[in-house]
Task: inverse folding
């Protein structure tokens, strides 16, 4: 069993080939996937996927890169999170790579998501890029540890991982961990305890080796898990079992059946 803890199956490259994508998951032993929301305008497609397929789940949130979209308040997020297939709040967080002016609206939006997650007792899916210090600061100030969650597509340092782990968060690795120049990230993969480890594709982005540069899909999470296993000196089976167990423990509203 393998679980893709973060993908975007509603994006055009994947939704247009929905049946084939799901079949390839089965062929590669990927039993479940979490389809992550990036803005409320496209949320119906995300929830629609989860409603059509028992092995898919959804989240509710607005990505920090998205500026020209509906801005959610806590009440809106809570109402949407009440859907039975919604298992998390996010994708949320901070991104100073694309928004180098570090806009206050990003920080305000992040706080709103954390508060909603605390109120509905669903874990957070957190994105951070060129913003680790502020991301961790806001997590502490808003009590993100009360909700828990995952630092998705982790590319930060071992020290940032340690701080996130201290807040009770999981660390999820994407296909980047398989790239030749990612030895520092593989060191983080060795550092993270097995009970806080997750794997993801972030499909359709960041396809792992040997598919780098191609459209990513949940089936390829097997290659992410293999790269993590190789870095840790463990078997694929062991990493698959640990990450799948961690997924269903963290996202407690997701059913493995």
Result:
């Amino acid at each position: 069993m393998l679980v893709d803890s973060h993908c975007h199956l509603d994006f055009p490259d994947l939704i247009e080939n929905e049946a084939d994508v799901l079949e390839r998951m089965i062929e590669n032993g990927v039993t479940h996937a979490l389809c992550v929301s990036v803005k409320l305008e496209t949320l119906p497609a995300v929830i629609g996927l989860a409603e059509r397929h028992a092995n898919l789940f959804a989240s509710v949130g607005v990505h920090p890169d998205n500026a020209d979209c509906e801005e959610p308040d806590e009440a809106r997020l809570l109402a949407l999170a009440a859907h039975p297939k919604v298992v998390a709040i996010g994708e949320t967080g901070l991104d100073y790579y694309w928004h180098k002016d570090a806009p206050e609206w990003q920080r305000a939006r992040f706080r709103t998501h954390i508060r909603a997650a605390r109120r509905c007792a669903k874990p957070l899916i957190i994105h951070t890029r060129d913003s680790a210090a502020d991301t961790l600061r806001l997590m502490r100030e808003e009590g993100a540890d009360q909700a828990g969650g995952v630092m998705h597509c982790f590319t930060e340092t071992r020290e940032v991982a340690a701080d996130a782990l201290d807040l009770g968060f999981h660390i999820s690795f994407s296909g980047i961990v398989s790239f030749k120049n990612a030895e520092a990230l593989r060191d983080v993969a060795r550092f993270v305890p097995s009970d806080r480890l997750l794997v993801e594709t972030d499909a359709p982005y960041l396809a792992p080796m040997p598919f780098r540069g191609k459209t990513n899909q949940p089936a390829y999470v097997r290659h992410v898990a293999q790269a993590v296993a190789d870095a840790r000196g463990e078997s694929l089976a062991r990493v698959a079992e640990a990450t799948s167990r961690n997924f269903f423990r963290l996202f407690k509203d997701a059913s493995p059946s």
Summary: Residues 25 and 219 are 4 Å apart (CA to CA).
